[in-house]
Specification:
Two copies of one chain form a homodimer. Chain A is α/β, with parallel strands linked by helices. Chain A is about 40% helix and about 25% strand. The first copy, chain A, has a nine-stranded mixed β-sheet with strand order 5-4-1-8-9-10-11-12-13, sandwiched between helices. In chain A, strands 3-2-6-7 form a four-stranded mixed β-sheet.
């Protein structure tokens, strides 16, 4: 089943202890799509400026990502610039230029409005809401956000949470929005805001899934080659939703498998800058690492 | 197979956001023994002062812990006093009174010197060495330590690491001793110091086992009732060694099961002050939670 994803397409400048890259292709929707494409067709709903290099368009198309709803607007593409220090866990944002994101009005084709899987990747919650409202009858709606929106558009975000099935947050965001430090308590509080399922991403410490009837916890795939964690959370979500969109029914075992797929996809993402590794990834690479992960993380 | 454990017996005063307890029975060897006793016989090698309440002696005996080598020396029992703030992750030490620990010369009986399983719980590495050297032919020797000894007796500790099979450290200790931030790199560096197997305890984030041929990673058992984490690491080690001492052969699957047993034992420990929960624990309680843990943490 195809997935529609709305989120950002960005030009990322990233510095880590292992090197630097200038204006790489990035953004929440792109990282998500790069992982989800391994499972199913992905329709990208996003905006770029007229400065956006055409080679990036060609690249996304080569990866099989549908660009029908990628708007090319007058202005500059969204740019993010950040740095990671030794611990490689927290990004320090150096510069953000929203550019064409400021006037983004998503426009979905009739076919896209009929899709059954919708991922609202990190972007202004008012934009997420507009896309959500334009869908006819999605079967599964998941949402990701970030600290900035929790602080500055909390009301919009809370209204949106009432309408989604799954909320994907990292530990800091979950604590900030719920006011609870313990992550199970935080997840329980977030579940009361609306989403039946809450996923808390803990970076190098793995993922916790919480729902009223079911808890699931896995570690991250252990890798010693952390080069650039930018987009790891979006890559996780892409692997997770991709795997779910491929499952016949969404039961506990499908959820477990989907989380493991997400964790494995994210592990490839952090092992290189930007999309350098996930762009070359095949379904077989993912399956192989998933098998090894199962071996070293289940008892 | 019986286990000998050398470590501290302490009177702990602990304050957490959920309450306070004054001069509870604690210490690395006691927390270890309280978990390991669920699997096998445990011989406690330690010292207390002549102020040590006799009810604690009676209590340990009731729990089936062998006290042949518990010395009662002239002086005060080791006291530790600490506080945990909201995050309940890091203990702030308020006061330490070593008392009789300062002059502790462990003395093992002939029968104890023949035991096959030895756990060197957190205590001065020179004391750990003395116990290790008094053993005839232990099959498995594991060691735990702490930041203080890494900083102040690094040389003694490194010499000792050459002689042990397993080193159990928390993430901070592993980083401090190895100089590596990434935990897999840290474990690899520690393995080069001698121990074939390195276990890194990540608190609420679970445990990583590293050996040259085998990696294993599990999350912590997810609990929302964290009351007092004091002794969680020692309780983990007790469940881990206890399970191993019961296994016929120490292969990968025995190691996996042992780590899961340790994680489950530790989860009970944090749910109450001191030994309040682990003292009442039965083998069946542990087995039940282990079965549930398997269900929510394997895929």
């Amino acid at each position: 089943m195809s997935i529609a994803v709305v989120g950002t397409v960005a030009l990322d400048t990233v510095k880590t202890p292992l090197g630097k890259r200038v204006q790489m292709l990035g953004g929440s929707a792109v990282h998500f799509a790069m992982a989800a494409r391994l499972f199913t067709r992905v329709n990208l709903v996003a905006v770029v400026g007229n400065d956006f290099p055409s080679r990036h368009i060609a690249f996304l198309q080569r990866k099989g990502i549908k660009l029908t709803s990628l708007l090319i607007d007058d202005g500059k593409t969204f740019q993010w610039s950040g740095e990671y220090k030794d611990d490689l866990n927290t990004a320090i944002t150096l510069r953000t230029e929203l550019g064409v994101l400021l006037q983004f009005r998503p426009l979905l084709s009739e076919a896209e409005r009929r899709l059954k899987y919708l991922f609202l990747a990190n972007i202004d919650p008012d934009i997420q809401r507009r896309v959500l409202e334009s869908m006819y009858a999605p079967r599964l709606i998941a949402l990701d956000s970030m600290n900035y929106w929790i602080r500055h558009k909390k009301k919009s975000l809370l209204k949106l949470l009432e309408k989604v099935d799954m909320y994907v947050a990292n530990d800091q965001e979950a604590r900030l929005l719920s006011g609870e430090y313990n992550l199970i308590k935080a997840a329980r509080a977030l579940e009361r805001f609306g989403p039946a399922t809450v996923l808390i991403k803990k970076g190098e410490h793995g993922v916790l899934l919480y729902s009223k009837k079911f808890i699931f916890s896995i570690p991250a795939y252990p890798t010693d080659r952390v080069v650039d964690p930018t987009g790891a959370g979006d890559t996780f979500a892409g692997g997770f939703m991709g795997s779910l969109a491929q499952s016949k029914t969404i039961n506990n075992s499908a959820l477990k498998r989907a989380i493991a797929c997400g964790a494995v996809a994210a592990s490839f993402n952090v092992e290189a800058f930007g999309l350098e590794k996930t762009a070359r990834l095949t379904r077989l690479d993912l399956r192989r690492r998933l098998a090894y992960f199962r071996q070293i993380a289940t008892f």
